[in-house]
């Protein structure tokens, strides 16, 4: 690729990541469905293709040929724009993730900051969708969304700060390099607590059960996306999965040492994917085991429990690092 | 959660105090994932908080009481099961008991025991549906709630298998007839029943494992939808709701019918009156019902299963003039059947007392003050079946 201009090279890399990503995401849906089915004493999809392996493709085709409805009273322009506004940040977070040393779109020196900032922008698309649908369920869901995501971004970001402080860098590859001796999840006390809080906060920031009050189908039918159909619905759904998997990648990167693992260097991305899927499975496991929490209780958990805990955790980490020197591995 | 001061005009939209919030009227149902059939609640909201609820029923009305007048005593029991289709055995039993009372027909002991067994198995099956759908309401079809739902449905299927091998039907049985029951136990049924209830006994522990120590479950159910003792008596709710509000009343023990006096069982009572209390009551009832089935299997007397020969014509059973009221303890509370006979083959008047209907009438008293999320938890905890509400 040496003959190409940097812009073109970036475009190719970005396109490759996006293409691979959508492939992975469609199959992550199958993974979740199979996993949930096993939890629930079911078999899961098995009709389309061998062992149901073509199910995601069938789903995609089905969603593409569905009628695309826009409610008569909806704010048409915002309604149509919302899935895109929702999708862009959900996919943009991958831009800052290095999948192996040197592989990735951009290994920014403020990678974590970029990831967290972009990932909290999804709320804009959510609120637009909820508001523009002109539906009471969507409206309530949009209000809940703002409440919840703003509340949970704080503990989420603070939990992500624990590895950052331990590594002494905001650059993702540096954080991984700092874990070459000891993955941060094994860092005594701080690492485990940080990982647990990170998982809880990311479940909430991704609106998954038990914190899925936004879509809460037994209360608000489908929440902010109740009026969406066809490909727009698919875009929202895909973006949600992108966000969940992106967060799983971040979790694997911050706490599980990303591409570090036995074997030759080219196995790095495979290790990373496996670790990210493990985080994803943990989140999925939580999702299919708990019942939903009420909206006021969600806010209480965030402000009264998680936020103080994470602030203390960050302070404790900072003190530890000052006392012992940045781990750096 | 405290309820608001009485507000008789809740549905009017008006600007509130300095916060400037407006009231929002939101329809929950009849087409809604947690409408439990066709329940429609017109909610008046202030933000997330419900300030008024207007319950609308009648979407499933099928003129059951008129049907009862136009069908003969022999024909109606199979239709009776369609009132409360989640607990079909119970409503059949109430109807045939009312007729037997009116016509002074004795029921052989074996038939009485079989009736008790079916009623209790039905209670287990019905409570399975309650627990599953209630968790579905609170936990979502795409979350832990559906996990509980699929577990409970698995056990309900086992009970339905028992019913199927006995009557050939899985939902509406036509098992009871005037003077006894229609089918005797087939060979091997008792052994199958024993192994099934042993398994269910174990599986109930699984549900409790998922819920009893689950902090989120406690958050969602404790202190939610409190029915005070006085309110429970004023409104006339029944069954687990009544016992969850601290009133120790169970027809099976206080006014035994169909030989219930032969069985020993515990009547659970909780005093908190909230959703969690109702959950605790029903969880104990699960096990008590299994205990009764075991006792009935152990003590099942030999003998005929019906005091009357099989009928050759649907108009063959004639009952004297008079009136009667029979009530049984269904899974949802007192199911009553009131009959006026005019000496013919059809009743002059038939009236159902549906347990779900009476239980549902407590909702407007307890919902205001709670949030939208609590509405589904409260409605689910009353366990309504709309076939029985609307009849």
The level of helicity of chain B is 40-55%
Distance between the termini of chain A: 33 Å
Helix/strand order of chain A, N-terminal first: HHHHHHHHHHHH
Uncertain runs of chain B are: 1-6, 12-16
User: Could you give the order of strands across the largest sheet of chain B?
Assistant: 1-2-3
Give the H and E element order of chain B: EEEHHHHHEEHHHHHHEEEHHHH
* Sequence stretches where pLDDT stays below 50 over 5 or more residues of chain A: none
Largest sheet of chain A: none
Shape of chain A: globular
Task: Kindly identify the CATH topology of chain B.
Answer: Cytochrome-c3 Hydrogenase, chain B
Please report the number of helical segments of chain A.
Answer: 12
Q: Give the N-terminus to C-terminus distance of chain B in angstroms.
A: 34 Å
Mean pLDDT of chain B: 85
What is the assigned CATH homologous superfamily of chain B? Cytochrome-c3 Hydrogenase, chain B
Radius of gyration of chain B: 22 Å
Q: Count of DSSP helices of chain B?
A: 15
Q: Tell me about the largest β-sheet of chain B.
A: 3 strands, antiparallel
Mind telling me which CATH architecture of chain B this is? Orthogonal Bundle
